[in-house]
Amino acid sequence: MLTARNVTKNYSNLQVLKGVDISVSKGEIVAIVGSSGAGKSTLLHILGTLDSPTNGEIFINNVQTSGLTGTRLADFRNRHIGFIFQFHHLLPEFTALENVCIPGYIAGTRKSAVKERAAFLLDTLGLKDRLEHRPKELSGGEQQRVAVARALINNPDVIMADEPTGNLDSHNARELHQLFLQLRDQFEQTFIIVTHNEELATLSDRQLVMKDGKIVS
Ligand code: ADP
Ligand code: ADP
């Protein structure tokens, strides 16, 4: 579903990625682990088309994303990739339902269909009674689950998560882990997750260990 070949990234004369090869299958949860500064976030951002590689190729469902630019890239990213970050980045003035709908509206999907799917996803994630709440009226765990629903709204090929449990207590972190497993089993959802959380890494289907710009195991 996703293939990266010989991806490198240079910042001026610092080589941060030194030739990374990855292939990820549909429905797989892949954790990227390793010490701080190893290049994990840089790799995730490049796989997610938020940043471009210096060299190398990336294919997501046979589309060479490293060949896309401008509005075509933005459109591809919005439709095909979901993002979850350490902080939820929900828009404070919108309700949970509206926050989840926004990427669907941007994709140009019929409004009624977007709303119906958003409500279905929030229900699936245990937030049936929170549709009209604004982010500040939700607990931290609930806010992050709204962010997960938002990441899922356009039925993305892959969800890229950068330290998704980094701002959650252990109880909410564990609930989010279970949710990822549920989404994998229920929808064959693919995840690539950068995490320092050992439990989340262990629950994943595969762990890629990065060291000094390379995958070492
Ligand atoms: P990790 O996520 O594993 O902690 P990062 O991908 O954040 O690692 O960073 C890898 C290396 O790249 C670090 O040495 C970091 O300082 C450097 N780096 C990251 N982003 C930039 C940037 N925009 N400009 C220069 N150096 C960067
Ligand atoms: P936590 O124990 O995770 O910190 P909170 O005490 O923040 O949770 O919230 C408990 C419940 O109360 C949550 O389900 C949340 O939806 C609800 N809630 C919190 N603040 C508000 C508010 N201002 N308006 C409506 N509901 C709220």
Automatic annotation (TrEMBL):
It comes from the Bacteria. SMART domains: AAA. Pfam families: ABC_tran (PF00005). One of its GO terms (cellular component) is plasma membrane. Keywords: ATP-binding, Cell membrane, Lipoprotein, Membrane, Nucleotide-binding, Translocase, Transport. PANTHER family: ABC TRANSPORTER ABCH.1, IMPORT ATP-BINDING PROTEIN. Residues 2-216 form the ABC transporter domain. The keyword Transport applies. PROSITE patterns: ABC_TRANSPORTER_1 (PS00211), ABC_TRANSPORTER_2 (PS50893). This is Lipoprotein-releasing system ATP-binding protein. GO terms for biological process: lipoprotein localization to outer membrane; protein localization to outer membrane. Transmembrane segments: none annotated.
